[in-house]
Design a protein that fits this description.
Layout lengths: L11 H8 L2 H12 L11 E6 L8 E8 L3 E7 L7 H14 L14 E8 L10 E4 L15 E7 L10 H12 L11 H14 L2 H36 L2 H15 L3 H7 L7 H5 L3
Parallel strand pairs: 3-4, 4-6
Antiparallel strand pairs: 1-2, 2-3, 5-6
Helix pairs in contact: 2-5, 6-7, 7-8
Length: 282
């Protein structure tokens, strides 16, 4: 378990706590978008839930806010998944569905949307810091759709330093390694604001208590899930019986609960005298 002091902005708890402050989120967007004039008009919302109908899948976005004409949604994605591109497409659809009032007939009233996903890996393998996607005509790239939708994927490990600002590069280092708190000055005012907010969070006793409570809640959920999985494995083993079925039960518990073969067999109450027999067949 990491302590609060060890967290970086890649960790969801710290990212949400920092970006819950609208000035900090505004500073982050200014660096990423290269727009010093950007001014958010609404408080940033963390863990905002979006759903189009009770029976459909909802989403819980990391940070959500807007300026005078654009909705901004920023996600911190620490772990690699192979569905991230389509995940942003789904987020786009749910955000758009909430922007048009009932009875509104003019679709031009829909605000622009910018979805940003920050990752400590290169999703597209081109060694770039930033990948920005807007729809253009396949037959003629000079023809743009101009529907106001933009998706940006950020790789903290990019190598094209000449294409981004020094403050952007420093932000990438800070996001992943907490580096630069002492070295950044007036030349990086937005980053200094982010660093100040992070330092404030880590010094807060109230946030420290909140972090421990969150960790305890998540640990309890993991423990209950593990115990439930073991019970299901035991039940399956008792019901099926037989060597083949028992081997399957051992594998199921090993995969689902991330246990060793010996731990799985103990959970299934297999006699220790039979351990070697099953170990040779796993």
């Amino acid at each position: 378990m990491k302590t609060l002091q060890e967290l970086t902005l890649l960790d969801k708890f710290l990212f949400d706590e920092a970006m819950d402050d609208p000035n900090t989120y505004e500073a982050l967007l200014r660096i990423i978008l290269g727009d010093e004039e950007l001014k958010l008009l609404t408080p940033s919302q963390t863990e905002k839930e979006l759903r189009t109908a009770p029976w459909l899948r909802s989403i819980r976005v990391d940070v959500y806010s807007m300026d005078d004409d654009t909705i901004f949604n920023t996600e911190m994605q620490k772990e690699y998944r192979d569905d991230l591109v389509k995940r942003t497409r789904y987020y786009q659809a749910l955000i758009d569905s909430s922007l048009l009032a009932p009875g509104e007939v003019d679709f031009n009233t829909i605000k622009n949307t910018t979805i940003i996903m920050i990752m400590p890996f290169d999703l597209f393998g081109k060694n770039r810091y930033v990948y920005t996607f807007e729809d253009v005509c396949k037959e003629d790239a000079t023809v743009k759709l101009d529907d106001g939708a933009k998706r940006i994927f950020i790789n903290t490990h990019g190598q094209n330093k000449d294409d981004v600002s020094p403050e952007f590069i420093a932000l990438m280092r800070f996001i992943e390694y907490n580096e630069g708190i002492e070295t950044q000055g007036d030349s990086a005012p937005n980053l200094a604001k982010i660093q100040g907010r992070v330092a404030e969070i880590k010094a807060s006793e109230e946030v420290g208590v909140k972090f421990m409570q969150r960790w305890e809640e998540e640990a309890l959920i993991r423990h209950e899930s593990k115990q439930e999985g073991i019970k299901e494995g035991i039940s399956l083993g008792e019901k099926q019986g037989g060597e083949k079925e028992r081997l399957s039960s051992i594998r199921n518990i090993m995969d689902s609960m991330k246990l060793t073969a010996e731990e799985a067999m103990k959970a299934l109450k297999i006699p220790e005298s039979d351990f070697e027999k099953y170990m040779t067949k796993l």
